[in-house]
From TrEMBL:
InterPro entries: Methyltranfer_dom, SAM-dependent_MTases_sf. GO terms for biological process: methylation. GO terms for molecular function: methyltransferase activity. It comes from Limnobacter profundi. This is SAM-dependent methyltransferase.
């Protein structure tokens, strides 16, 4: 007897009420109803991240009588924003807004059109803007609840953190991309550090400069968040086979500031030769 054909959609572990139209628009499901394997990998990552963000949304909405303002930076095709809205917000949309910030106009236009098509446009908006300018943008409110950035390129994650600090975000969920700035500063400080500390061996070889720079960037981001009163958890997003950029930083505001963390950050910059006139203290600014 021939085996009954398996519905390819079963492999997506769809949630009740989840929009197939959205999955088609995001090219996760093909027009013929099959699965696009490349996009499926992306979906798996986004699903995983949404599981971390769902309790944050619940906590905010409980505290705000249903209100929620979430800003996703470096939104790209806005997989994350759309899946969040589809899974957790569209059933009870009053007061909930997901905004996406993205520099590529064509992606912003596509996302705004898709939001309209799905009937999500009352609660979703996409703005063509570099993250660094988002703090001043008139369409974004004075304060926001949640900041997300999934693989926002280079220093866009740092700009997202600055945005969240300025907008007093209660939570930030960040999956950083590669960041070249810290490695560039390490490269410049190498010569002056060689005689001072044997720790320079951590980044003497060019490949190590890049790897150590990448690790250090996230360490400094975490310290910066702690200095501003956030409780920080660092974890792996999904197995390494899915992405090399796999570190998830979740930050929850729990106190005004943390002077000890601020001092530790300052000390690290000095010890690594990253302070000084053109140093990194502006990038990783801490409360005065
Ligand atoms: C690697 S993609 C990730 C997109 C999306 N978050 C995702 O995970 O599918 C990075 C996106 O960030 C956008 N981007 C890069 N730098 C940016 C900046 N400074 N401000 C806003 N968007 C930026 C790029 O155009 C690109 O769409």
């Amino acid at each position: 007897m021939p085996k009954p054909k398996r519905n390819p959609l079963d492999t997506l572990e769809l949630k009740p009420g989840q929009s197939i139209e959205l999955l088609k628009a995001l090219h996760i499901v093909t027009r013929e109803g099959g699965i696009n394997q490349d996009s499926r990998r992306k979906l798996k990552q986004v699903y995983h991240l949404t599981q971390f963000i769902e309790p944050l949304i619940d906590e905010v909405r409980k505290a705000n009588d249903g209100g929620l303002y979430l800003v996703d930076h470096g939104a790209g095709k806005s997989y994350l924003g759309f899946i969040l809205y589809d899974l957790y917000l569209k059933q009870n949309p009053d007061g909930a807004v997901v905004a996406g910030v993205e520099t590529r106009q064509e992606l912003v236009d596509k996302s705004n059109t898709l939001a309209k098509q799905l009937g999500f446009d009352a609660g979703m908006q996409f703005i063509n803007l570099p993250v660094a300018q988002a703090t001043e943008h008139p369409d974004l409110p004075e304060t926001v609840d949640i900041v997300t950035a999934l693989h926002a390129c280079n220093t866009a994650t740092d700009d997202a953190i600055s945005f969240g600090l300025k907008k007093q975000a209660k939570f930030m969920a960040l999956v950083p991309c590669c960041q070249a700035e810290v490695a560039t500063h390490l490269r410049k400080s190498k010569a002056s550090q060689l005689g001072k500390s044997s720790l320079v061996e951590m980044w003497r070889h060019p490949l190590h400069t890049r790897e150590f720079g990448s690790q250090l960037t996230n360490v400094l981001r975490c310290l910066q968040l702690e200095a501003h009163g956030y409780q920080v958890t660092v974890t792996e997003l999904v197995g390494w086979e899915h992405s090399m950029k796999n570190e998830l930083i979740i930050a929850k505001k729990h106190q005004r500031s943390n002077p000890k963390a601020a001092q530790r950050l300052r000390d690290m910059l000095v010890e690594l030769g990253l302070d000084g006139e053109e140093g990194l203290q502006q990038r990783f600014h801490v409360p005065a």
